[in-house]
């Protein structure tokens, strides 16, 4: 009987193995293109996938994933060969990906480059090579509630006057709010008078040249502390607080990006978008972020992936299709001109034109935590702005020097 | 069905139709499992993962033997548990220990072989490189031939990895639409771009030697020239840049030149005790360590004390038969336990919001100014205790309720006869007997809270930051959250190797503390007295 059982097991093993091997063979024979995208772009990518499949006979699979998950999952899965062929992500991932050897450089002709807004391509450039095809750029600007602030202030002095008049913390009413311990949203104030994170050299960012402890950055930090200590932008104001109060019509002005517009419209707020006010007569320069498509270095389908990008993402039609579902500023000049009559696009576009690309070098990882912590200390009034910014710069320099 | 004694020698005739069905099911299940496993093992082997493949085969053989041999019958009960224990406990621990001695992390994600392969396939375009349009043709057998436009009016034929000048007459090349590329090549079939795309699997592998250059596919429409950028020499384990002649040797996980210049990407290397040494010698890490350690200890101890006191108090109340609607109270009080902790924690963050939080609305109504719950070190700690009390008291209440009900009522009657007052009864009867049952659980709770990453990370994120700290260290950071921030937000990307090293140290700390705790509570002695 035991022998019979053994024989039967063996027979089943053979049968199942033959079937799975056949199925595996069939799988390996068909090429397909896998794209990881987040919720915002998927509706635009699905029709493109269908069209690609019809024309080339190759299946395109669009997988929806949380924005941050794309970054972490891609890092882990690409080297094993299990990753997607294309990902949709932010330009500041490029440095880490390129350093880890996970993304493929993209070759564009001069004419193809000319079709894009330079800041979008700069964002995806690392070590002199381009690693992504941008489809949108974005930067923060001033969004104001017309019911409370009829005309947006042009300078920070004007903004302070408006804010003092409107703010009444007991009624939970505020003139101006922004997430004040968040490095990304605070950057325009630091940059206005000459603060920067890493110097942009044209080739890329120089991790040895840090400008967070110069006079300009410290002047910005003083303004940040003043706003908090005066109670205009209370300490601990986070994004949710700012967003929630603005959507309830309790806030005159906020500083954030085009991603918030949809919510503002839905809340029925009569809003306008303006440039961030000047500070000491100098233009505030927000971070410019670029969104785009990157090609997996380990993908066996790199040529197909490039074909997909050339056909859909590097064209006006493709960029407009994505803009309709993900309304940030199109990165292709032709597509931008098509939608520039939209007041929001024009205003955010103007803000981005003042901005500087957010550094994409991996050393940026040393910045976020350090700057965030020191900004918190400044906002909480626990440390003097000058010494806090000096601490931040020193911590970043030390961390970069130590990195292996 | 036959009943009675069955001897292992003659098991055959048991079993009617039902048993035969079960037998078939078993054969089918085992066979399927083995086949899938064998297939996976073959894939692993082909990928060069020898040990996982060996472990897979060994596991399959053992499973099949255990579930078919009567001699291994008792093993059938333990085996599934053992397999999961190996997969979910032993393997992760082993992996963590292995990673702790490497530099695995940002900059060192790939294996050395993968990195060498990347450099070997890397080509560069020489300054005078050109691109060429091409047409593709397919012979009846499926062989691909490419015809490239070398210069206007001059064609070259690419076949079998070689390039030769075209002879339009002999090759039967005809340009029908006058676009400069042939549209026909004898009897071969011309391929459109879309048809070409279907054969990409082979096209992307193709390289054509052309003098000292290589032609490769740049897009579905163009070929480009290139040269190999690097050459790897296995004998000396060096990489040579073919453009400059510079030699790179593997140093600290990077191919490094004489002048110290590193080639990216790097690879994973064994770094010995470096990660452990760094914890002690790097002042930026070790300086906040003591403060963090003291707070971690206080956090775990006070949390347990608070949770236990609250749980005990409620349990004593609920255990009193004079209390009406006891079941209702009990259900309501258990509610916080039934909501997932991370949801509760996030909800509390909202309630504690300085500007718009409900708690500060109450504070304002009482006439005080808003409390900076998450901005001030003291209040941030108070807030954490509050949240964790909410999350943890129901557990303590449940276990003490159970333990209270197991205390024999004769003891209480005896105490009553002796004229003890309620407080004396509680102190001399209830509490000691209760502690026997619950103190091991308190030790467990201490160990759990020592590593309670969720609450800290979700409520304060370790903040508010310490003034002057050179690492991401906050006033409410406990060891595990400090580790997480050092390894993943410390600014050097993700450092899995370093994180693994610290978690091993934390594991040792918790193990030692728990051992001491068990000793001090004397649990084992008391339990043995009781038996």
UniProtKB/TrEMBL annotation, chain A:
InterPro entries hit by this protein: Maltose/Cyclodextrin-bd, SBP
Keywords recorded for this protein, A-Z: Cell membrane, Lipoprotein, Membrane, Signal, Sugar transport, Transport
Keyword Protease included in the entry's annotation: no
Subcellular location as annotated: Cell membrane
Membrane topology: Lipid-anchor
Signal peptide region: 1-28
Primary site of residence: membrane
Family the entry assigns: Belongs to the bacterial solute-binding protein 1 family.
UniProt cross-references to NCBIfam families, sorted A to Z: PRK09474.1
Protein name as it appears in the record: Maltodextrin-binding protein
Species annotation: Carboxydichorda subterranea
TrEMBL record, chain B:
Keyword RNA-binding: no
CDD domains according to UniProt: TM_PBP2
Keyword Transmembrane carried by entry: yes
Alphabetical keyword list: Cell membrane, Membrane, Sugar transport, Transmembrane, Transmembrane helix, Transport
Topology in the lipid bilayer: Multi-pass membrane protein
Segments passing through the bilayer: 50-67, 79-101, 292-319, 331-351, 378-404, 425-448, 496-518
Localization, UniProt: Cell membrane
Residues of the ABC transmembrane type-1 domain: 293-517
Family according to the record: Belongs to the binding-protein-dependent transport system permease family. MalFG subfamily.
Function per UniProt: Part of the ABC transporter complex MalEFGK involved in maltose/maltodextrin import. Probably responsible for the translocation of the substrate across the membrane.
Protein name, UniProt field: Maltose/maltodextrin transport system permease protein
Species of the source: Carboxydichorda subterranea
């Amino acid at each position: 009987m035991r022998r019979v059982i053994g024989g039967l097991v063996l027979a089943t093993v053979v049968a199942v193995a033959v079937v799975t091997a056949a199925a595996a063979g069939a799988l390996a024979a068909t090429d397909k293109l896998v794209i990881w995208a987040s919720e915002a772009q998927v509706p635009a990518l699905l029709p493109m996938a269908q069209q690609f499949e019809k024309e080339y006979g190759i299946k395109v699979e669009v997988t929806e994933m949380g924005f941050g998950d794309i970054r972490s999952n891609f890092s882990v899965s690409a080297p094993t060969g299990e990753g997607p062929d294309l990902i949709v992500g932010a330009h500041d991932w490029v440095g880490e990906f390129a350093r880890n050897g996970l993304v493929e450089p993209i070759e564009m002709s001069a004419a193809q480059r000319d079709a894009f807004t330079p800041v979008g391509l700069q964002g995806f450039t690392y070590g002199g090579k381009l690693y992504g095809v941008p489809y949108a750029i974005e930067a923060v600007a001033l969004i104001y509630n017309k019911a409370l602030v009829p005309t947006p202030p042009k300078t920070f002095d004007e903004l302070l006057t408006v804010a003092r008049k409107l703010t009444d913390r007991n009624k939970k009413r505020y003139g101006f709010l922004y997430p004040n311990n968040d490095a990304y949203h605070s950057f325009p104030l630091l940059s206005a008078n000459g603060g920067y994170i890493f110097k942009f050299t044209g080739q890329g960012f120089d991790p040895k040249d840090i400008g967070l402890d110069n006079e300009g950055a410290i002047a910005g930090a003083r303004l940040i502390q003043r706003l908090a200590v005066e109670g205009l932008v209370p300490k601990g104001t986070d994004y949710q607080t700012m967003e929630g109060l603005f959507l309830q019509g309790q806030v005159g002005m906020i500083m954030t990006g085009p991603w918030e517009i949809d919510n503002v419209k839905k809340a029925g707020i009569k809003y306008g978008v303006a440039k961030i006010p000047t500070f000491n007569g100098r233009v505030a320069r927000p971070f410019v972020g670029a969104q785009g498509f990157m090609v997996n270095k380990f993908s066996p389908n790199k040529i197909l992936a490039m074909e997909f990008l050339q056909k859909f993402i590097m064209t006006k039609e493709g960029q407009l299709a994505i803009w309709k579902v993900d309304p940030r500023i199109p990165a292709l000049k032709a597509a931008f001109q098509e939608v520039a009559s939209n007041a929001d696009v024009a205003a955010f576009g103007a803000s981005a034109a003042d901005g500087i690309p957010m550094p994409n070098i991996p050393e940026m990882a040393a910045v976020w935590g350090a700057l965030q912590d020191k900004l918190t200390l400044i906002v909480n009034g626990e440390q003097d702005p000058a010494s806090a910014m000096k601490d931040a710069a020193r911590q970043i320099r030390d961390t970069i020097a130590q990195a292996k | 069905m036959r009943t009675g004694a069955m001897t292992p020698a003659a098991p055959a005739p048991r079993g009617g139709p039902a048993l035969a069905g079960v037998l078939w099911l078993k054969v089918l299940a085992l066979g399927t499992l083995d086949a899938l496993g064998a297939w996976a093992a073959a894939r692993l082997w082909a990928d060069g993962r020898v040990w996982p493949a060996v472990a897979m085969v060994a596991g399959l053989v053992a499973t099949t033997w255990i579930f078919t041999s009567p001699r291994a019958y008792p093993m059938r009960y333990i085996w599934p548990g053992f397999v999961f224990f190996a997969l979910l406990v032993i393997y992760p621990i082993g992996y963590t220990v292995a990673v702790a001695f490497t530099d695995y992390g940002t900059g060192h994600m790939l294996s050395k072989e993968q990195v060498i392969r990347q450099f070997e396939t890397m080509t560069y375009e020489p300054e005078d490189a050109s691109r060429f349009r091409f047409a593709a043709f397919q012979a009846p057998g499926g062989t691909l031939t490419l015809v490239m436009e070398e210069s206007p009016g001059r064609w070259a034929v690419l076949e079998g990895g070689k390039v030769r000048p075209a002879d339009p007459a002999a090759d039967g090349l005809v340009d029908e639409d006058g676009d400069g590329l042939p549209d026909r090549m004898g009897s071969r079939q011309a391929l459109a771009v879309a048809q070409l795309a279907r054969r990409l699997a082979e096209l992307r592998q193709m390289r054509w030697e052309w003098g000292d250059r290589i032609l490769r596919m740049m897009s579905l429409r163009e070929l480009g020239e290139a040269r190999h950028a690097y050459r790897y020499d296995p004998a000396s384990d060096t990489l040579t840049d073919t453009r400059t002649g510079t030699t790179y040797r593997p140093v600290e996980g990077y191919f490094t030149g004489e002048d110290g210049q590193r080639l990216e990407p790097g690879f994973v290397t064994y770094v010995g005790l470096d990660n452990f040494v760094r914890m002690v010698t790097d002042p930026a890490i070790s300086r906040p360590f003591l403060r963090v350690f003291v707070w971690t200890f206080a956090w775990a101890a006070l949390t347990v004390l608070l949770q236990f006191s609250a749980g005990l108090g409620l349990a004593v109340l609920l255990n009193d038969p004079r209390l009406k609607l006891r079941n209702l109270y009990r259900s309501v009080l258990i509610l916080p336990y039934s909501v997932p902790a991370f949801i509760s924690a996030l909800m509390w963050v909202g309630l504690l919001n300085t500007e718009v939080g409900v708690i500060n609305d109450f504070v304002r109504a009482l006439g005080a100014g808003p409390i900076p719950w998450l901005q001030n070190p003291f209040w941030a700690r108070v807030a954490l205790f509050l949240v964790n009390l909410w999350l943890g008291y129901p557990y303590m209440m449940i276990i003490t309720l159970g333990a209270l009900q197991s205390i024999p009522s004769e003891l209480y009657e005896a105490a009553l006869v002796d004229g003890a007052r309620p407080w004396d009864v509680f102190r001399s009867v209830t509490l000691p007997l209760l502690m026997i049952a619950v103190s091991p659980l308190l030790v467990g709770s201490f160990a759990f809270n020592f590593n309670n990453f969720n609450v800290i990370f979700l409520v304060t994120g370790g903040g508010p930051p310490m003034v002057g700290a050179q690492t991401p260290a906050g006033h409410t950071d406990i060891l595990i959250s400090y580790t997480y921030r050092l390894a993943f937000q410390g600014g050097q990307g993700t450092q899995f190797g370093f994180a693994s090293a610290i978690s091993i140290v934390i594991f040792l700390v918790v193990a030692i503390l728990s051992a001491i705790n068990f000793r001090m509570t004397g649990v084992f002695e008391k339990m043995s007295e009781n038996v």
